[in-house]
Amino acid sequence: xxGSETSTSWQRSAEPDLDQMRRLVGLVEHDTAxxxxxxxxxxxxxxxxxxxxQAALFYQTVFGMELLAxxxxxxxxxxxxxxxxxxxxxxxxxxxxxxxxxxxxxxHRRHGEGVIDIALEVPDxxxxxxxxxxxxxxVVEEPHDLRDEHGTVRVAAIATYGETRHSLVDRSRYTGxxxxxxxxxxxxxxxxxxxxxxxxxxxxxxxxGGPGRLFQxxxxxVGNVELGRLDEWVAFYNRVMGFTTMAEFVxxxxxxxxxxxxxxxVTNGNHRVKLPLNEPAVSARRSQIDEYLxxxxxxxxxxxxxxxxxxxxxxxxxxARGVEFLDTPDAYYRDPGLRARVGEVRVPVEELRTRxxxxxxxxxGYLLQIFTRPIGDRPTVFFEFIERHGALxxxxxxxxxLFEAIEREQARRGxx
Length: 416
Ligand SMILES: [Fe+2]
Fold this sequence. Notes:
By secondary structure, the protein is of the alpha+beta class. It has helices at 9-13, 18-25, 52-61, 103-111, 125-134, 230-241, 288-296, 311-320, 330-334, 336-342, 349-355, 399-413; strands spanning 41-48, 66-71, 80-87, 90-97, 114-121, 139-148, 151-159, 165-174, 183-184, 217-224, 244-249, 261-267, 274-280, 300-307, 358-362, 365-371, 382-389.
């Protein structure tokens, strides 16, 4: 069976279909038979946030995500509140500590807003864990079953960079909204008044009239790792998870006057899960990766790229709702080299310029992309929105233009 012909249960239950997914995130053919660590796709991105109750509302009203499920004191979870949201095939789980002794609060105190778990859907949890353990991975959660009236989920977790983990999830025998312990909550939930129905007081409802779906899939999740340890982490993904190294950006490609980084990308067989990894490179001034490592207090997820089929609308709606994007210098669009480099794209360059959307082309096609400012108080995690037209890369031609824009922001914060 060809791996690219399989879709995860999550993909089957939600738009987009496999063909759309192939266009959105650039899938390639892959034979899973020879794969030592088969991965079907992303399961969820699990966040530690300072206020999950409010963050859930933000991701519904601003990012247009739908609320799916909830866990908290009202459902027997006295440690934290957790909200499960989705947009297309993207699933976020937002967790905020309730019990003062919750480990989530310790995590948040140290790192601020951040991703604690890049959960992956795998067809055989035990097989993956056995392989990972034999190749030296730290198993932070042994394989076990979670059960409720909706069925059984098999889960385990292995450690990756910093305090980040990869949960490995097989939900093929489960029909519930997320995991046992969670109850269904929808964005359309309306309270019917003071009926004393306490079961309805926990989920956050998205107000009517909010935006529709602004992104359909998770394209890649980028990690920042320690100086000098990039190759070690690339080797970890190669050895432990059978991921291949799909691209390398080093030195001159991404160095600007003050910043430099080294970046390599590892991916699973069909490229559904793409994990670029950065480390700071020696440069004249503090690089953006150094700034991240200082303020996150260690390695962690730097950005998530969300795939959209209409980046113009996505950016217009998000900006109207207050999301701030990095500025792109006008010089980027005036550069005659830009048009020569990218050729024909679906929207006039002027439309891109007014929104600050970047464009890049590789041998397979082109892509449009834009980056938000950090989403929390610390200069750490941010989002990218990406619209692919065949291109399988990450916008390497934009790296210099992008980093120059980031450095202007760093200078404004006094961190350059
Ligand atoms: Fe990216």
